[in-house]
Amino acid sequence: MIHFVVHDEHDSVGVVVVEGVKSGQQLSGWIMDQDKTIKVRAQSDIPIGHKLAIAKLAANDTVIKYGVDIGRTVAPIKVGEHAHVHNIKTKRW
Q1: pLDDT at 57
Q2: Could you tell me which of 88, 3, 85, 77 has the C-alpha nearest to residue 40?
Q3: How far apart are CA 44 and CA 24, in angstroms?
Q4: What is the pLDDT of residues 23-59, one digit of tens each?
Q5: C-alpha torsion angle, residues 93, 66, 84, 89 (rounded to 10)
Q6: How many alpha carbons fall within 13 Å on the CB side of residue 29?
Q7: Which residues contact 25 (CB under 8 A, 6 or more apart)?
Q8: Is the pLDDT confidence value at 93 over 80?
Q9: How far is Cα 7 from Cα 30, in angstroms, rounded to an integer?
Q10: pLDDT tens digits, residue range 57-69?
Q11: Which of 29, 26, 79, 21 is nearest to 45 (CA)?
């Protein structure tokens, strides 16, 4: 079962595609461009459609999704943590 998808192996986040991801759950992800799978343990509950960190990110790191810079972290994010508006902000403002 695929729990999250990633466009490119260089992305730092994937998108959860199933309901009910819970902290501690082992997740399977599909990296589309390379057609390979990865495993990540969820560090927090993550709603469907939200981002999951697949790389360790420090404060002020650039976040890459779909091969595109989507903003910067405002706090460190561990692999498997929920990545959303509480810890990622746009660089525009």
Answers
A1: 98
A2: 3
A3: 7
A4: 999 999 999 999 999 999 999 999 999 999 999 999 9
A5: -10
A6: 30
A7: 3, 41, 42
A8: no
A9: 8
A10: 999 999 999 999 9
A11: 21
Token pair, residue 37, equals 């799978």
Confidence of residue 92 (pLDDT cuts 50, 70, 90): confident
Average pLDDT over residues 82-90: 95
Token digits of residue 46? 């993550």
Q: Give me the sheet containing 51-53, strands edge to edge.
A: 36-41, 26-31, 4-6, 13-16, 51-53, 82-83
Cα–Cα dist 35/30, whole Å: 7
Nearest-angstrom CA–CA distance, 61 and 67: 15
Classify strands 82-83 and 51-53 as parallel, antiparallel or unpaired: antiparallel
* Model confidence, pTM: 0.92
